[in-house]
């Protein structure tokens, strides 16, 4: 996509502080970190959001989770825990229309949603 910020980062016309790169994915530091460790995991293929993921992309999304596990280990946050977030659409806070995961860790993160093991369905 011509105007996609993340596609421009993939092509190298906008610099980034890379953590990992292969032929399908790029992981780089967020420019406005919300935690001591805050990186973005993106596929090089442009997919606007989770709503646009087609059946041909399911394997790619699975690989993104493998990348997240590996990067969390490499950045030293896997053992104590990390948060993996995907925002989908404007109401969620998705600011760039290119599917991506935020990988955050390096500190005790606050609760996003109250949860309880006693919820019954």
Features:
21% strand, single chain, HIT family, subunit A, HIT-like, five-stranded antiparallel beta sheet, alpha+beta, 5 strands, 121 residues
Explain how this protein is built.
The protein has 2 helices and 5 strands. The protein is of the alpha+beta class and 121 residues long. The protein has one domain (5-105): HIT-like (HIT family, subunit A, 2-Layer Sandwich). A hairpin with a 3-residue loop joins strand 1 and strand 2 (25-29). It is globular and about 35 Å long.
Spatial shape? globular
Beta strands, count? 5
Largest sheet: 5 strands, antiparallel
Order the strands across the largest sheet as they lie in space: 1-2-3-5-4
CATH class: Alpha Beta
Measured as a percent range, the helix fraction is 10-25%
Strand content: 15-25%
| Structural class determined from secondary elements | alpha+beta
Under CATH, the homologous superfamily reads HIT-like
Per DSSP, the total helix count is: 2
Spell the H/E element sequence: HEEEHEE
Low-pLDDT stretches are none
Cα distance spanning the termini: 43 Å
Mean pLDDT: 92
Tell me which CATH architecture applies here: 2-Layer Sandwich
CATH topology: HIT family, subunit A
Radius of gyration: 15 Å
Pfam family, one: HIT
Protein name: Histidine triad nucleotide-binding protein
Domain HIT: 5-114
Motif (Histidine triad motif): 98-102
């Amino acid at each position: 996509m011509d105007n996609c910020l993340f596609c421009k980062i993939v092509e190298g016309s906008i610099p980034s502080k890379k953590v990992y790169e292969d032929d399908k994915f790029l992981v780089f530091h967020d420019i406005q970190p919300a935690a001591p460790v805050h990186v973005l995991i993106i596929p090089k293929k442009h997919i606007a959001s989770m709503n646009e993921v087609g059946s041909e992309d399911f394997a790619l999304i699975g690989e993104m989770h493998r990348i997240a596990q590996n990067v969390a280990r490499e950045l030293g946050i896997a053992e104590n825990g990390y948060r993996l977030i995907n925002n989908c659409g404007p109401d969620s806070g998705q600011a760039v229309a290119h599917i991506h995961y935020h990988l955050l860790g390096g500190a005790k993160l606050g609760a996003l949603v109250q949860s309880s093991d006693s919820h019954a369905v």
